[in-house]
């Protein structure tokens, strides 16, 4: 079982067999992933097109299933926030309920709303246009610009 999520900086991250991989490079149709702990671990995986990844070098540490479950929950929730017009709190609640029905024992490790609400609202605000900083930045459709009245 594998999934590709986003890091906090928006870069792709592969979750595969309990380990986290960062994208190392892409050549032709192959994506090469390296372990997140690159200073201590030489774990690597290769993925051809959209097929399942293949472990090419073993890890020197244990997998972190809890962290991966939290990150996958957060990424899927952020995707839903970008796609659906519902409130952030309602989407969080519905995602938590669906996680409860699929894996009741795993819900206890998921982050609470207050822990991740800032990043969720930042994701929601990405869909809104930026506020103008100057009056000249304001453009109203259907209005004829007559210049400055001062």
TrEMBL record:
A single MF term (Gene Ontology): zinc ion binding
Q: Which domain of life is it from?
A: Eukaryota
Q: Does the keyword Metal-binding apply?
A: yes
- Spell out the Basic and acidic residues composition-biased ranges: 59-69
Keywords of the record: Metal-binding, Zinc, Zinc-finger
Query: What is the name attached to this protein's record?
Result: FLYWCH-type domain-containing protein
Asked whether the UniProt record includes Zinc-finger among its keywords, one would answer: yes
InterPro entries the record matches: Znf_FLYWCH
**Residue ranges occupied by any FLYWCH-type domain in the UniProt entry:** 5-61
Enumerate the residue ranges of region (Disordered): 42-69
């Amino acid at each position: 079982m594998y999934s590709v999520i986003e890091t906090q900086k928006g870069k792709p991250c592969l979750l595969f067999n309990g380990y986290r991989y960062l994208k190392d490079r892409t050549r032709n149709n192959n994506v090469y992933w390296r372990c997140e702990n690159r200073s201590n671990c030489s774990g690597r995986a290769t993925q051809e097109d959209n097929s399942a990844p293949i472990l090419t070098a073993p890890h020197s540490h244990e997998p972190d299933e809890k962290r991966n479950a939290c990150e996958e929950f957060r990424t899927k929730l952020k995707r839903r926030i970008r796609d659906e017009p519902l409130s952030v709190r309602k989407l969080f609640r519905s995602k938590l309920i669906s996680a409860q029905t699929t894996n009741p024992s795993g819900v206890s490790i998921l982050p609470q709303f207050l822990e991740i609400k800032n990043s969720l609202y930042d994701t929601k605000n990405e869909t809104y246009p930026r506020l103008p900083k100057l009056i000249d930045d304001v453009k109203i459709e259907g209005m004829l610009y007559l210049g400055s009245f001062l």
